[in-house]
Amino acid sequence: MGESRFLMTDWVLGCCSLPGRYDALWKEIDYVKQKIFARNDLKLEELGIAALFLGECYAWFCVGEIVGRGGTLTGYKV
To answer: Where are the domains of the chain?
Structure first.
């Protein structure tokens, strides 16, 4: 009983922070828009970080595809 009560409390606290997370999301989107519009002023370091982030996203996508296929690298099991 104590453990499920703890999980319920975490869920309630997570839901209460949604408005704050929503505002933070839009601030992040506005920041990215500003960087895209001023892309000629980007530093090499910022471009490198963006490239690493995109590479990591692609790697996680590939891992998800492999897991979704049941762990095979060649294709789906029939």
So the answer is: 1-40, 42-78
